[in-house]
Amino acid sequence: MKKYLEILRHCPLFDGIDSESLIRMLGCLGARVASFDKKYTVFAEGSPAKYIGIVLSGSVQIVQVDYYGNRSILSKIGAAHMFAEAFACAEIGAMPVTVIANEPCEVMLIDCGHILHTCTNNCGFHQQLIYNLMKDLATKTLLFHQRIEITAKRTTREKLMAYLALQAKEAGSNSFEIPFDRQELADYLDVDRSGLSAEISKLRREGVLTSAKNRFVLLK
Amino acid sequence: MKKYLEILRHCPLFDGIDSESLIRMLGCLGARVASFDKKYTVFAEGSPAKYIGIVLSGSVQIVQVDYYGNRSILSKIGAAHMFAEAFACAEIGAMPVTVIANEPCEVMLIDCGHILHTCTNNCGFHQQLIYNLMKDLATKTLLFHQRIEITAKRTTREKLMAYLALQAKEAGSNSFEIPFDRQELADYLDVDRSGLSAEISKLRREGVLTSAKNRFVLLK
DNA sequence: CTCCTTTTGTTGAAAATTCAACAGATTTAT
DNA sequence: ATAAATCTGTTGAATTTTCAACAAAAGGAG
Question: A84 and A23, same structural domain?
Fold first, then answer.
């Protein structure tokens, strides 16, 4: 487990917990590590929602796929961040979404029950973990609000511009890279891919932006 | 404060806390009560996000309004439920949404800092409150997932049917009332109101459902 | 380096949404 | 009870999206 310490120290779940305690805690929590190749399923929709996942390397996508096969990407989770924690904490039976490896990745899995309930030895860190989960869930809620603000727009152009403006703001620059390819961006914005490509071309012709692959530059 | 006890006992924030302790706690937390008439603003977008709100009577709406005045309804919060807790817990400066009284209502406001930080007397209930907040935020996350699953659909008909199917499931019956009028439902589904009305009429003609005001019956 | 696969951009037609305007129904206020 | 205000359903035109098909570009495997 020691090899993952450097990453785990940056995981919001372990805020305020020193490295030594962390190591001990991992054993106590029954943490284990799993690896997935690109496109492999980490958690399938409908599977038991027992585990909190932590991305150790690579990244995963949280996706919903409806009856007709339409995909919607809820978020992309990178190193040191958690996924599925809301479902595990809410103690619902089954996963309402699918988690897919976005690239080859390693994830740590922790049975959430061990965090919420069975802490026989009343370690002080137990409370800290719950506090950290609360903080993390509050932050995740903000991300959902952002996504909803974007996808609530009615046209592809408005959605795209709202998304790009937010990315620019977060990057602190008019030039930035986005973490999605075209199909993924379309699935995040809930629009048609070809229509999205067309809109990007149009914005480029209009001089609103320039783009090369995943790098965009907002002009004006 | 005693008059609100019966409601507050059902608030997720106070799960596992007996009435007597609750009363004492409210004083310690500096809880106060405010009343709002229909359509009045409880929290404006951009205002400080310090307070957790609890609906004591009536209900409030959480809404986003964009640059052009387009409204998107994120959720409706009824008696005993919390609002703005994610923003207060995340300790961001400003509210990213607006909270509006949906009808005449009373709300309890609690400075979240008093829950997260300044508990000098190390009461055991402090930990319980944080645990309860964590649970509540996990549950709210599920609601966002539901909403996203609905609004990710591409047509008004698909959004509407997904929404109604969910309402029927929650009501445990094919006959149920929804908490929105037409304009509100359109703003929740992120579609045009007149188009929504037209779609409902069409579904009725096709024998998929019957409806009268806010009561719908799914047939077949 | 070449072949094969995946991704991206384009296009036109069909389908759906938005928008604006209006009339009838319902609700609220006085 | 009556008038005013709000809500709902309808319609047609303009706009936009989706869909399907294809070609060019980029990326990966051997």
Answer: yes
